[in-house]
Write a structure and sequence with these properties.
By secondary structure, the chain is of the alpha/beta class. Helix content is about 35%, strand content about 25%. The strands form 8 sheets. Strands 1, 4, 5, 6, 8, 9, 10, 11 and 12 form a 9-stranded mixed beta sheet that branches. A 6-stranded antiparallel beta sheet has the order 21-22-23-24-26-25, covered by helices on one side. The two termini are about 35 Å apart.
Length: about 625
């Protein structure tokens, strides 16, 4: 934003459409993944070019002032109490001495979540000659602002100005605008509407212009459903399905399904099941199942479920997050649900997904049942395994013994795949001929260099030829060990937890013939969840003992342990390459949050293998 600009956040409203939620908290203090809406807004307004921030107050003002006084923003915020409420125009007039202190000022409503570029808005205002510049977008539910071909205000629905469809178009005000201080002269003392002042200023010949920000993310937290949608949007943007505040407790016998956010000070008791729920600060829901609701200290407010219309005419709920381009929908028929997978035309994994499912189920691997497949439409319907992955299950505190038990059972699935199913590999030529060979291993390390080292870290390796030699030797080393069928992406997001709590696996279409240590490394050294070292050691011993018992002389523990470090190196270079690709090429920036843990583990492994791969060690320590 331009140097010295003041900002104003109108936060005095009663939030009547949000009751009973706003009987507990003012709208602007509603949490979105651990932060009040106000904090999200102040983060956007508090860049180095911003000057001070004014906030008007009325409804539950103590909740706002108490929070600000404990926040990093307390030295930059001024309060403007109102009693009675002065409405949108009167609020600005009440703060006139503050707002007129700079040449222009920015107003950001207190119930708006967006990624609108405020610096661009301010810069546009400063070069436009406008007295006011409204950030607008095309949002059919709220399109009430009439603008001409130059984007200048011509009227507002309900304000008596006829709309001329031939010369004007309707758009929606986002609740964000930049004003020149001269606009304050159009506001009367006392209660008034800022919209009336816009129209009066325009009638006087002043330019009330707009900047179209269509395409930006925007949410108006004006109703409980809109608030819930904003929270679930934030979860999706972060690549998550579950948020559990560090200062919430419980969860040992609870189940958190679909999109669920549990906020500060909550306690989730045994026997509680949440699906598409937000649990507000300090709430303690009683035993039972809650679905599509906002839960407060003494209420549970029901929400309507959002559904998507499929081309077939059926309704479905879009589910799942992750790196895949495939889409998954939960569909309902006859009182039961199933999952529809839709793949893009030409997706080479589609056939493998179908064939592997049928093959794996024949030999007892716990993958979802295939109900039907339509190759001509690149779609298939599978058994519904629910919403809870091992990754999301681990989001809330669980007893250590419960965690270790689930990991043991997951490793037992790996043993079935590596021994029992591998013994029948010849019965599935599509898989038996899919070898994790030298070329593929070298592809992984090249992927790491291009997508992560260069793409994310912006580093060009100093001694490229030495690295190439080491990567060649590493690929030959990994490729020299006995191969089994491996899942290939055997990590916590691909393990589903059913009821009762038993693991099953998904996303196995990338399965290959490779050393089984690759799967062990993927699960036990998973960047998505850090296991305690002692727990990991016990789990690894369990896997080795189970493999020895199932395979007899074929499985050699010493050889397995020899293969483990090279496979860990390969796996974590592949993971970092994937995070770089998915964040930069697919726009899934949330994968970058897993980089620190993956890189920590790769550094640990590179140090252990320093003598064998010194150039790799030198490179990794620079990252």
């Amino acid at each position: 934003m331009d140097e010295g600009i003041n900002c104003f956040v109108p936060a005095a409203g009663l939030g009547e459409r949000m009751r009973p939620i706003t009987d507990c908290l003012p709208k602007t203090m509603l949490p979105v993944l651990g932060k009040p809406v106000l904090e999200h807004i102040l983060e956007k307004l508090s860049g180095p070019q911003a000057h001070q921030i004014g906030i008007n107050l009325h409804h539950k003002k103590e909740a706002i002032t108490d929070w600000v006084e404990k926040s990093p923003y307390k030295t930059r915020v001024l309060f403007f109490p109102e009693d009675p409420v002065l409405d949108t125009g009167g609020a600005l007039k009440n703060a006139e001495s503050f707002l007129s202190g700079t040449g222009s000022f920015l107003v950001h409503n207190a119930d708006i979540m967006s990624d609108i570029d405020l610096s661009k808005l301010v810069a546009h205002h400063n070069t436009s000659g406008n007295m006011v510049t409204l950030a607008v977008h095309d949002c059919s539910r709220f399109n009430t602002v009439a603008v001409d071909g130059d984007g200048n205000l011509r009227g507002v629905a309900g304000k008596g100005t006829p709309f001329n469809p031939g010369k004007e178009r309707l758009t929606a005000y986002t609740g964000i605008a930049v004003y020149s201080r001269e606009f304050l002269a159009f506001l009367p003392e006392g209660k008034s509407s800022v919209v009336d002042a816009w129209l009066n200023a325009a009638a006087s010949g002043s330019l009330i212009g707009t900047l179209d920000v269509t395409g930006s993310y925007w949410a108006d937290i004006g109703t409980p459903a809109a608030y819930a949608s904003a929270v679930f949007d934030a979860l999706k943007a972060d690549g998550e399905t579950v948020y559990f505040h560090p200062e919430a407790t419980g969860c040992a016998g609870a189940r958190l399904n679909a999109y669920t956010a549990v906020e500060r000070g909550c306690s989730i008791a045994e026997g509680v099941s949440l699906r598409n729920c937000i649990v507000l600060p300090g709430s303690m829901p009683g035993r039972g199942a809650y679905e599509n609701c906002i839960i407060g200290p003494d209420f549970a407010f029901s929400l309507g479920e959002c559904k998507t219309m499929l081309p077939s005419g059926r309704t479905a709920t879009l589910i799942g997050v992750g790196g895949s381009d495939r889409k998954y929908f939960r569909i309902e028929k006859g009182g039961t649900t199933s999952v529809l997978m839709q793949c893009a035309e030409g997706d080479a994994d589609f056939e493998r997904h179908i064939e592997y499912t049928l093959f794996f189920r024949r030999f007892g691997l716990p993958v979802p049942e295939l109900i039907s497949a339509g190759p001509e439409r690149m779609s298939a319907i599978f058994e519904d395994l629910g919403d809870v992955s091992l990754y999301s299950w681990l989001k809330c505190p669980r007893p250590a013994g419960q965690v270790e038990r689930l990991y043991r059972e997951t490793l037992d699935i790996a043993v079935t795949l590596h021994i029992t199913v591998t013994g029948h590999a010849a019965e599935c030529p599509l898989l038996a001929n899919r070898i994790f060979d030298y070329n593929h291993l070298r592809w992984e390390t090249s992927y790491f260099i291009e997508r992560f080292v260069k793409g994310v870290r912006g580093i060009a390796p100093d001694n490229f030829q030495a690295l190439e030699d080491e990567f060649n030797r590493l690929a030959l080393k990994v490729g020299s060990f006995p191969r089994t069928i491996i899942h290939r992406d055997f990590q916590s997001q691909n393990v589903m937890i059913g009821q009762p709590e038993t693991p099953r696996i998904i996303d196995y279409q990338g399965a290959r013939m490779a050393p089984p240590a690759y799967d062990a490394a993927s699960l036990l050294w998973d960047p998505y969840y850090r296991l305690d070292d002692a727990v990991r050691a016990r789990l690894l011993a369990h896997y080795v003992e189970s493999m020895s018992a199932a395979a007899g002389k074929w499985f050699e523990p010493d050889q397995f342990y020899e293969s483990l470090l090279p496979c860990r190196l390969q796996r974590h270079m592949q993971a970092l390459g994937a995070y770089g690709f998915l964040s930069s090429m697919k726009g899934k920036k949330f994968f970058l949050k897993h980089v620190p843990e993956a890189l920590r583990m790769l550094k640990e492994e590179a140090a252990m293998a320093k003598d064998a791969y010194p150039a790799l060690y030198t490179l990794v320590m620079k990252l």
